Amino acid sequence: MGHFFTNIIKTFRSGPDLVNSRLWNCSLLRQRISYILLILEVFIYASEILLQTVELKVEMVGIHEKRLRKCLSKLKGIEKVEVDVSSQKVAVTGYAHRNKILKAIRRGGLKADFWSTQNELLSVYASASYGSLGFNNVNFF
């Protein structure tokens, strides 16, 4: 990939000996710059083309699941949404960019971050520690 960009830069820098020619400076230079910008745009948006699964940690209770699904339904390219309320993990599969998914959830008023292995370790630790306490079916509300 780096070789590709170096060739473009060499092409951009090379030119005819008519460096002082205003015609070359204006038209050919603009053409090469627009070509480079077009290539960079393709690479920036290439991640939206591929189907990907984005895992997120979303702070929510059961009633927030409906709001979460509504926020994500507004995005184009979402294929599937899997919600695990107990571990607060959301898996979104689709063609949308991962930052757009995160932004849509945050716009809906939910606290969210990308899922990391640290979140998974904390989830396992919390379920092992607090799951064994048991409250003898006492309702607090």
From TrEMBL:
CDD domains named among the record's database cross-references: HMA
SUPFAM superfamilies, alphabetized: HMA, heavy metal-associated domain
Record field: transmembrane: none
GO molecular function: metal ion binding
Annotated Pfam families: HMA
Domain HMA: 47-113
Matches recorded under Gene3D superfamilies: 3.30.70.100
Signal sequence range: none
Source taxon at top rank: Eukaryota
UniProt-listed InterPro entries: HMA_dom (IPR006121), HMA_dom_sf (IPR036163)
The name this protein goes by in its record: HEAVY METAL-ASSOCIATED ISOPRENYLATED PLANT PROTEIN 20-LIKE
Organism: Salix koriyanagi
